[in-house]
Amino acid sequence: MSSACPFCQPDTLPVLENALALACFDKHPVTQGHMLVLTRRHVASWFEAAAQERLALISLLDECRELLDERFHPDGYNVGTNVGVVSGQTIPHLHIHLIPRYTGDCADPRGGVRGVIPSKQWYPLEGEKP
Questions:
Q1: Distance from CA of residue 126 to its chain's centroid?
Q2: Distance between CA atoms of 78 and 81, rounded to whole angstroms?
Q3: Residue 52 belongs to what domain range?
Q4: Residue 96 in contact with residue 24, Cβ under 8 Å?
Q5: Is 127 domain-assigned?
Q6: What is the rounded CA–CA span in Å between residue 36 and residue 79?
Q7: CATH number of the structural domain spanning residue 36
Q8: Are 79 and 61 spatial neighbours (Cβ–Cβ below 8 Å)?
C-alpha cells in the first residue's frame, strides 16, 4: 500500500473482488459502466505483477464483463492498461480499464485502442484505398 496512491485508499470501494484484485467503477468514465480492475498490492504495472495477480485480474475482468452485460447491455468492449507515463499512465498502480462500447458512441470506432495515436487509428482494410 502507498499512502499517496488513490487506489490504495480505503475509499476505493470494490464492486467485485477476489483475494488479489478488486474492481470498481471509474470515477471519470469514458462510457456508462467503465470499470477499473486493479491489484490489491501496490504495484506499478502489468509487468511487475506476480503471475497469480495477473490471473486474478483476468478472472475479475470476466466477472466484470458479466456484470456489465447484465446491467448495461453494451455492444462491445475495449480492454487496456497503460504502462508508464509516456503511455498515458497517470496513477502508478496497475489497473486495467474495461470500457463498454455502444453502437454509435463514436463516429467511426474502427481501430479501437489504436486511437491512442490518432493518426494511426484508421488503416485501410483489404480492398480499400488509403
A1: 30
A2: 10
A3: 6-121
A4: no
A5: no
A6: 10
A7: 3.30.428.10
A8: yes
